[in-house]
Write a structure and sequence with these properties.
Order of helices and strands: HHHEHEEEEEHH
Distance between the termini: 63 Å
Largest sheet: 4 strands, mixed
């Protein structure tokens, strides 16, 4: 292999890598693409769910009460939506894992990078798209760039979250990406805050 062959080979690999990341970003922000990848039984429930920002008949604080969960589309919709949230007061990202499921409602625990903020949000994944609304205390970014959490329970959350996000994103998106800030969460402070919140 000559010098030029080596050069072009590297260029092609880089282009292939860029394409993988671009495809993953597109999937991460497209409910249609996400829904098309769901297993058939789950896809039927998601696609035929209510297309809404707030579920009809919901009561209580949006996202903060089980009776008013945030509508999203499937597990990847949960990750996409929560990865777009930022704290209104500070602009801080939040990081998350799923702690429980009650009926059709998934309950997520969230912390910020300092570990001083803890919150619990309720999501209903049987809808064709994510809500465009956001709970009190938050704002919603226009699009998600990197995953900030997982749809499984993390026993020592948020310890080891970065690696777990990469592992889950490879399953969902085909690339092992994660928000780098998740490596900098103050775990000890987060544990204290979580204990105080219970």
């Amino acid at each position: 292999m000559g010098f030029l062959d080596s050069f072009y080979s590297k260029d092609l690999n880089q282009t292939r890598s860029e394409k993988m990341y671009n495809d993953a970003l597109q999937l991460f922000n497209s409910p249609e693409l996400q829904n098309a990848r769901l297993p058939r039984d789950l896809a039927d429930k998601v696609i035929n769910g209510e297309d809404c920002d707030v579920i009809t008949g919901a009561a209580g604080a949006f996202g903060h009460d089980m009776t008013n969960p945030i509508p999203v589309n499937g597990p990847l919709g949960e990750v996409t939506y929560l990865s777009r949230l930022r704290l209104r007061a500070t602009g801080s990202m939040v990081f998350f894992h799923k702690i429980n499921t009650v009926g059709a409602i998934d309950i997520f625990e969230l912390v910020n990078v300092s570990g001083k903020f803890v919150d619990y949000l309720y999501l209903d994944m049987f809808h064709p798209r994510c809500s465009r609304l956001y709970p009190a205390q938050y704002t919603l970014e226009r699009e998600a760039v990197f995953p900030r959490g997982v749809t499984a329970k993390v026993e020592e959350f948020p310890k080891g979250l970065y690696k777990l996000i990469k592992k889950e994103s490879e399953q969902h998106l085909g690339v092992d990406v994660a928000e780098k800030e998740s490596k900098r969460i103050d775990v000890e402070q987060a544990w204290q805050s979580i204990r105080a919140a219970k």
